[in-house]
Write a structure and sequence with these properties.
446 residues; mainly alpha; Clc chloride channel; 2 domains; 19 helices; 0% strand; disordered N terminus
Length: 446
């Protein structure tokens, strides 16, 4: 058997196709379905964000009603109808890779939960939450691929792990239109014990997902294949690298604090707040909604959603976003995630990072706003998620810029080191351990 085609139960013959080729075909079809699901969520997220913007145009005060009630509703539905759908979705996928009982995996990666994740993420964006769709896409992608284990030729715990890993990678690739980053993220974050025998299956699935994205992106996804468009930015060596130090330290500190808060919540919140969150989760979500609404109102409506628009504007040299954007986006993202609704932190983190770059642009000679925004995106993302290689690759792919590879990578690595001093346990790993302990207490820690 060749690399990339792991064993999955007994090799039983088929009247139409050998088991090995059946698995290859299913890998291909599954990856294509994940890419289509990612594109569908991207389109629906754009519609939800646009609908909210149009409704609140001239009546921004309405978000003080819409957002608290909406987050309360999403939290109620998450806890009562779709338990396990809360948060990013990446911790659920990570936890499933370490579960020993395949039935337990199905509790966090079911098609029913996939539907709930999809609907609730869209509702969260419609109600003005500061969330992204990339983390949910990982859980959706992993769930789609996990559903293939119902077929005899795809059974077996090891095969299930491979399918989850492939689904998560294809989800990232489809969500951001970044196939290389999808592979890197799967290896760097999802698959800490990644087996090189599965490289071919992983790469093949992501390639299929990338091709599917290319074929349908113009119909589903307004950004085309390059997420932020081609960014013309570069840096010389020497004094310009002071920008690397600045954004690496700032991104690492703020990202580390953010990750530590999420990893400890709700038990680690201040005593009164933590008790309130545990005893009255729906009311706590409404309170978080008020904070998110206040940030949206103070920013003129620029902080809700993923932050794609402001980040793209900064990368293209538009300075109208304002200095308050990064701070307000940071608080709004914390409030949205702590509320317990489904939603990711990937793209909001990139928006925050671009806003941080805006704070310091002009401080270092020879470093443009676009370059500072790219460094800020990589620095804050690496600080918050603690995946420096993914951070660097994803920024490069989303901006179609190879000139900034060295400074962007250096910024991400520095931010990672600084963040680890503040938040020793990566946020996704800490959250995954909570899911694992709740569902399969006997499993070893991640």
């Amino acid at each position: 058997m060749e690399a990339g085609a792991p064993e999955a139960g007994p090799e039983r013959g088929s009247s139409w196709l050998p088991p090995l080729w059946q698995r290859r075909l299913l890998f291909t079809l599954g990856a294509a379905l994940v890419a289509l699901a990612a594109l569908l969520l991207a389109w629906a997220a754009d519609v939800a964000t646009t609908t909210l913007a149009e409704f609140t145009d001239g009546r921004l005060w309405a978000i003080f009603i819409i957002t608290p009630l909406g987050l309360a509703l999403c939290t109620f539905l998450t806890r009562t109808v779709f338990p396990g759908a809360q948060g990013s979705g990446i911790p659920q996928a990570m936890a499933s890779l370490h579960m020993e009982n395949p039935r337990h995996v199905n509790t966090v990666l079911s098609l029913r939960l996939t539907f709930g994740k999809l609907v609730l993420t869209i509702l969260g964006l419609l109600f003005g939450a500061t969330i992204g769709r990339e983390g949910p896409t990982v859980q959706i992608g992993a769930s789609i691929m996990n559903s293939l284990t119902r077929l005899e030729v795809m059974r077996g715990r090891e095969m299930q792990r491979v399918l989850v890993l492939i689904g998560g990678a294809a989800g990232i690739a489809g969500a951001f239109n970044t196939p290389i980053a999808g592979v890197i993220f799967a290896i760097e974050e999802l698959g800490h014990s990644f087996d090189s025998r599965y490289t071919a299956a992983l790469l093949g699935a992501v390639v299929v997902g990338g091709i599917t994205t290319l074929l349908f992106a113009s119909h589903f996804y307004a950004g085309g294949y390059v997420y932020f468009g081609t960014i013309d930015a570069s840096m010389g060596f020497g004094i310009a690298y002071a920008a690397v130090v600045i954004m690496g330290v700032v991104g690492g500190v703020l990202g580390g604090v953010f990750g530590r808060i999420l990893a400890l919540a709700p038990e680690g919140l201040p005593r009164i707040m933590g008790k309130f969150a545990l005893r009255f989760p729906v009311l706590f979500a409404a309170s978080c909604g008020l904070v998110v609404a206040a940030c949206n109102y103070a920013s003129g409506g620029t902080t809700f959603g993923s932050g794609y628009g402001p980040a793209r504007a900064l990368l293209h040299g538009d300075v109208t976003v304002g200095y308050a954007f990064a701070a307000l986006k940071y608080i709004a993202l914390l409030g949205s995630y702590l509320s317990g609704i489904p939603g990711g932190i990937f793209s909001p983190s990139l928006g925050i990072g671009a806003g941080l770059g805006f704070w310091f642009h002009g401080l270092v000679p020879g470093v443009s706003l676009a370059a500072f925004a790219m460094l800020g995106m990589a620095g804050y993302f690496a600080g918050a998620v603690q995946t420096p290689i993914t951070a660097a690759i994803i920024v490069m792919e989303m901006t179609d810029n190879q000139h900034m590879l060295v400074p962007v990578t250096a910024t991400a690595l520095l931010a990672f080191v600084v963040s680890r001093l503040i938040c020793p346990k990566p946020v996704y790993g800490a959250l995954a351990e909570k899911f694992l302990a709740a569902i399969e207490p006997a499993s070893p820690a991640l």
